Please model this.
Amino acid sequence: MKTVQADAYLRPVIPLLVCLILGIVAGVKLPGHEIPAGLILFACMALLVWGVRRQRDARILPLFLFLGLGYLSIQPWIHPRFPADHVVRFIGGRQWQVTGIVYGPPVSNRHYLNFVVAVQGLADETGRRSASGKVRVSYDGEAPEMATGDAVTFSARLLPIRNFNNPGGFDYRRFLAFQGVFARGYIVKGSLRVAPRPEGNPIPRLIDRTRQRLLAFIKATASPGTGDILGALVVGNLSPIPPMERETFNRAGVGHLLAISGLHIGMVALFFGFLFTRLYRRVNFLLWRGWVRRAAVLSSFVPVMMYGALSGMPPATQRSVIMAALFLTALIIGRRQDGVNVLAVAALLILLFHPPVLYSISFQLSFAAVGTIVYGLSKTGIGRAAGGRSRMRVQDRVSLFFTVSLLAIFGTLPLAMYHFNQISLIALLANCLAVPAIGCIVVPAALLAVLLYPVSLTPAGWCMAISANVLEQSLKCIRLLADLPFASIHTVTPNFVEILGYYLLGGAVLNLVGRLRNPDPMAGRRDLKRPVLQMALAALILLVDGGYWTCHRFRRKELQVTFLDVGAGNAALLELPGGHIMLIDGGGFADNEAFDVGRRIVAPFLWQQKIRTIDTLVLTHADCDHLNGLLYIVRHFTVKEIWYNGQAVFTDAYGHFREAVRLERIPMPAFRFIRKERQIHGVRMELLHPSAGFPAVSQNGSEVNNNSIVLRVGYGAIGILFPGDIMASAERELVESKGSRINSTIMLAPHHGSKTSSTQVFLETVHPEVVVVSCRARGRARLPHSKVAERYRRLGIRILATDLHGALTMVTDGKGYSIAPTVRDHATPLAR
Model:
């Protein structure tokens, strides 16, 4: 207890930081209660002032104060109050002539140029009006050169920001809301006009122009692939790096090298500190008063801030700059700083300045890595003794490097699993090879080139060429390691309880190692009691959690069907009693490189449900909105068997699918050999369509749709029909050949509710109580079709659309059923 109290007094920022974080999280989870939170905050402040004046104990009040402060600080992003002229007022079908200022650097990819515009005015045929707020716009075409602060004019429709609402999915709406963006738009091709804006604050434009010049200099010096990585290392420009290259770094466990962090900031501080020290020794005024060191430290902070601004100040750089500032301040005043305290102060300042950064992956990984390193070294004492000597031995340096690398890897492990669902098995080896080369040669040479660039291009080019050549060799090594079959494994998504248990266990292990390395002879065995109890608590938490998920998966008695929200496509997961997993279709867009539904939607949902193995994968037909999402699943999940009718189509996606099935050696029997009726753990599977004799190769799209696999799943008195994209002729054939066998309680709408399907006789024969429409109702197709929707209503069929309700989960015990959205997504906040 004494130790806990001592730690609280020595590190008072930590409990305040924890309360601030809890307040921010509460503000995100339970928004809209600003008045009660404000009253609590005011009461705490009043009581705190009263306690200080009366010299009363007020240690608890600051905790509630920061809790309320955290809650209120996040509300402008989560529960904003929009003014009357905000762009959310003009969301709708009308096309506007938009004028505004480019906010932040534009980001281009293979498909679009994306950038944020701070809107100043809107115009249409009725006239011009002033407007405010930010819009994220995309432009498809060759765009004129633009930079932060430029004035732009374009034509676009303002649209709401929409999520794919599935458990485990990326919250795109919240991501943009944290940037203050509440509307989006697609610029009409040819309407974009850009004009430089010389007035206003010139600093952002100067920084942006400097970044662009440095990137052009890097591109002229290095090869294209190497130049993209070098641009990320020097000025933090990650946008040109293709996703496959980032995946390579993640597989090798060296993704952190792409972020500008303490390594870069420390080098800048050390270099300029040395330079200013040598310079100020020649100034007699400073030398006589003993101010050389303090003046050099103070002066070196200016280039540190300049470099941080040049990199765009991402969270990792913010943390490094603040920590550098605190350490430099300590050097000026002659005090020794505690690493844990400095880290806590840095996190507190960043969150007070911009609370949404708490949900940034960079912020979480950066502080988890550095926090684990600082805490681990302080507990174990590794490097402490060597740090006291003027020169460290080689073995001490190697030991410290390995310890720091291990602590960073294990400190970020659960967060890497949560955000990337991947663990690198070669991270330690890759870091041992890549970090010395990149940290000791590539980054210093590149930073020296940046420093020399305004002075002379020739030496700057030499330094950048050295940096690029060493980086190119390092990249070959990283790619070679990442290509190893055992380089990484994909994992399920840990929940909060599992992450908490992991860190409790890790902290207990570090405490135990520290006490074993530096035992307290007065405490004896009692010295080990606390870490052992902590380990037991963590093990109990993880054991209970594992037991819950084991029972949920393998001891369940109900059939659960989840219709995923994949836009205009189909994807449904069936969790059968006993743990059998069946995935029917995977959704998908025409261009998988633009947006991979399998990677971005289906796989995160499966990982969130702790699913790594699919027993049966069903592809109803080979249209892109059913097939393309399965490409990622086949490559990255264990699939035991595939059901497909075997009809070949002449598309790249189908060729990739067949190739992936062959490489992964997944059984995919010919359709005539698949048993058309079977029982799986009490669930009856019936393949009702297509009948024998359909063409082996498709001739047109209608033929592909009409030969879709039609699967009926029955559990007790409840039936679910999955008809694929069959149209009127196939529906008629089913009614004539199967009759009442197609009768089902719940039906996935044929062909997404288009007018080519859902004929009257088919609906009367199926006689469903609920029809699930997997579509994007607000898209161009406007599905379900108005006539089909009216037909559903006339027959008393309840319509549930994934576009409006998100992912829908049906649970049945064979007697009755319940169906409800699994994610209650909120629309873009309306003005208040």
Q: What stands out?
A: Residues 1-9, 386-390, 826-832 have pLDDT under 50 and may be disordered. The CA atoms of residues 585 and 693 lie 23 Å apart.
